[in-house]
Design brief:
eight-stranded mixed beta sheet, globular
Amino acid sequence: MKRTIFNLLFLCLGVGAWAQSNAALDRLKADPRRAYGTDYPYQFNTAPLTKAPKGYKPFYISHYGRHGSRYYWNEKLYKNIDTLLTKAHTLNQLTAEGEAFRQKFMAAKKELNTGWSELTQLGWEQHQGIARRMYNDFPQVFRKGGNVLAVSSLVGRCVISMSGFCQELVQCNPKIEIREQSSRFTLNAVVPTDKQNPDRKEYPECKPRFESNMDKFKVDTTIVQTVLSRVFTTTDSLTAPADEVVDWLSELYTSLPSIDHEGMMGSIISDQEVADFWEYSNLGTYSWLFSGRYIVIPIIEDIIQKADDVLAGHSDRIADLRFGHDSFIGPLTVLLGINGADLDPEDPYEVKNCYQSWETCMASNIQLVFYRGKKSADDILVKLLLNGEEATLPVPTTQAPYYRWSDFRQYYKAVCDSVKPE
């Protein structure tokens, strides 16, 4: 899971400033909640799509999507905060604001302890919206109906996300026939490292270069004591180190919009305070995703193989849909080099320019849209959408955001073949 904001604070000392006039920081300023990173709820953009070159029409879509918004993935967070607040309350060491938070948390305690890791209503609605947007953006693919295969992780929130997505597609056009599968047979397409995968392989890890230069990155750690002072009159009752406690609080805070409990924490933490540390937390997310990027090689191979089958006439599917986790769509973003995510900069201040953690948000998705031209049967273009927006790839092209399938296939086959399982 994500490496969170405050868990990293004590790795560096001092106070630093962000680079000025940066596109990523400008987007963060426009919506500070993007700093929630992998907890950021999916946002439906209205960016227009580039018209396909003359004579090309979409006919097939290959997709990978993360499950939608959920309760916190691990029950330990809720139990840790329960213990923390109960002890401080018993010792009368909560501030007025801390006590108000405790009361709201305890009122939701049963729900949280029951719901941990499960998809929420918002998560369901996100996948419904993404499916309808896909249908409306590419009506030529779905208009006549056809066969679709949808495969999911074995985890419930992914299965339900798949169900919501597929139901919406059929609502758009009842002629669409969808086979849904959550099976050990299809884990290579969604969660290759699952221990139940009979074809599971181990791949090497490689740390990003910026980690050797972390001494250049400076952060202000005073936020830890600031947050604690809003909750506790003294830190004598803390059940864990101060930075870990604030880490718990920040993880709960960024999860609240996904579980319909915004306002539970009052002003204990603010969006701006989370945003102030986004660039640093983004380094932790990038490190995690970059290091494990090779685990998604089987997913890329599955994308290529299924597309080959369609193009060769061995498959009549109009779409292949995959539903998994941030721990796979994130590395997939990096290994594919979407919008420069594979650049591996040496300067930690440059990381934000190639990867932004909010792109691996709840219900984040990658769509590869295939277009057929009129010149010949193998005259195929592909376009990649990341969360509904056209994205760039490191594949050579003269007509971005469109790439020749033959070039795409050759490039990523070479990427996959260059790394051997351990």
